[in-house]
Amino acid sequence: MEEKKDLLEKKEDAKETDLDKKAEGIAFGIADKAVKRIEDQLKESEIGKVVSKKELSNTNVKTLSKNEKIVRFFKALVRREGPDYKVIKALSEGVAADGGNLFPNEFRYEIIKDIEEQHRMRSLVKVLPMTRDIIDIPKRGSQVKVYWTAENAAKTTTTADWSQKQLVAYKMAAILYSSEELVDDSTIDVVQEIISQFSEAIATEEDRVITAGSGVAQPTGLTSATITAIACAGNLDFDDINNLFYNLPTQYRNKASFLVHNSNMLEIAKIKDSNGRYLYQDSQAAGDPPTLKGRPVYENNHLPESEIYFGDYKSAYYVGDRQQMTVDISREAGNAWEYDQVSIRVVERIAGNCVLENAVRVLNTIP
Question: Which burial class, exposed, middle or buried, applies to 354 when counting CB atoms under 10 A from its CB (0-12, 13-18, 19+)?
Answer without folding.
Answer: buried
